[in-house]
Design a protein that fits this description.
Elements lengths: L1 H16 L9 E5 L5 E7 L12 E10 L3 E11 L3 E9 L4 E5 L7 E7 L2 E10 L5 E10 L5 H21 L4
Parallel strand pairs: 1-3
Antiparallel strand pairs: 2-9, 3-8, 4-7, 4-9, 5-6, 5-8
C-alpha cells in the first residue's frame, strides 16, 4: 500500500510540473497568451575543443499570436555568466524589431502592437568558456489604446452629451 501511495505521488508530481517545461533553442513556444512561456539555452565547454567565435550564440524560438498584442519578456542568467547582446522579433513577412540588452540591469524586452501571425524570437549573446545557461520568459498582452484614440473617443462622447443636453425639453 505504501508503494502504491508513493508511486501515485510521484506521478502527480511529474504530471503537475510538465506544464512548466522550458523550450530549448529552435523550439516552438506555441501561441503566446497572457501566461508566460519559459525558454532557455546552455553551452558546455567540455564537449569539444573551443573554436574561434564559437562562444557567440544566436538562439531562435518560434511563436504565434492569435490577435494584435504586445510581446513582453525577459532573459536572465540561470547558471554562469552569460552576456546578452540583443533580442529580436521577426515576422513571417520579414519585418523585424530589435531590443539591445547591453544594460545588465535591464534584460527585459517589449515589442508593442504586433499583428496576428507567426514570429521568431532570437536571443543573441556570448557564453564564456565552460558550462553556462540562461533562461527567459515571454508572454502576450492586449495592446493599450494610444492616447490619440482615447482623446478622439472622449471628444465624441462629449459631443453626444452636448447634443443630448440641447435636445432636452426646457421646463
Amino acid at each position: 500500500m505504501q508503494v502504491k501511495l508513493l508511486a501515485a505521488a510521484a506521478v502527480l508530481a511529474v504530471s503537475s510540473t510538465s506544464s512548466f517545461a522550458v523550450v530549448a533553442p529552435d523550439g516552438d513556444l506555441g501561441a503566446l497568451t497572457k501566461y508566460p512561456v519559459q525558454f532557455g539555452g546552455s553551452r558546455s565547454g567540455a564537449e569539444r575543443v573551443p573554436q574561434p567565435g564559437d562562444r557567440l550564440f544566436s538562439h531562435d524560438y518560434t511563436f504565434t499570436l492569435g490577435g494584435t498584442a504586445s510581446v513582453i519578456g525577459s532573459v536572465s542568467n540561470f547558471f554562469g555568466e552569460t552576456s546578452f547582446s540583443s533580442v529580436t522579433v521577426t515576422s513571417s513577412g520579414g519585418a523585424s524589431w530589435t531590443k539591445s540588452l547591453t544594460d545588465i540591469n535591464d534584460l527585459s524586452f517589449d515589442f508593442a502592437n504586433l499583428a496576428a501571425g507567426s514570429y521568431t524570437l532570437t536571443v543573441d549573446g556570448v557564453f564564456p568558456l565552460g558550462f553556462h545557461a540562461y533562461s527567459g520568459s515571454v508572454y502576450a498582452a492586449a495592446p493599450v489604446p494610444e492616447p490619440a484614440s482615447m482623446a478622439l473617443a472622449l471628444a465624441g462622447l462629449g459631443i453626444v452629451a452636448a447634443v443630448a443636453r440641447r435636445r432636452r425639453p426646457q421646463a
